[in-house]
Amino acid sequence: MRQRRLKNEINVVPYIDVMLVLLVIFMVATPMMTTGSVDLPTSGTAPQKPDKYVKVEIGSDGGLTVYDSNGKEKKIGGLKNLKGELDSLKKGDDKLAVLIAGDKETQYKNVIEVLDEVKRLGFDKVGLETAIKQR
User: Is residue 11 part of a domain?
Assistant: First the structure.
């Protein structure tokens, strides 16, 4: 009786199938991963962001989120809580800049109220964040 010889080959077809499935998953999931939670309005030009800044995001529903200079996110209730949060972030740095990022669907009054509150707290450098329009 003849002995069977073993094949020293690896069948790569299942690996190719797995890789194609992963490719499709990443292609579908990548557009869903955005850098921010608000949809910023666009402008033709935007100045360079400062090196160190605090960011206040206003969602489409008017909800506020504060990001410290390290990028740590903290959701806050409203304007009254914004004052306490910004006061704690301002300690030790009088030249700290504040960027206000308002969703383009939010009411204009929400952005103005936050802008007024930030100015009232004594921040000198305050700006509105926008997305740059692609040509």
Answer: no
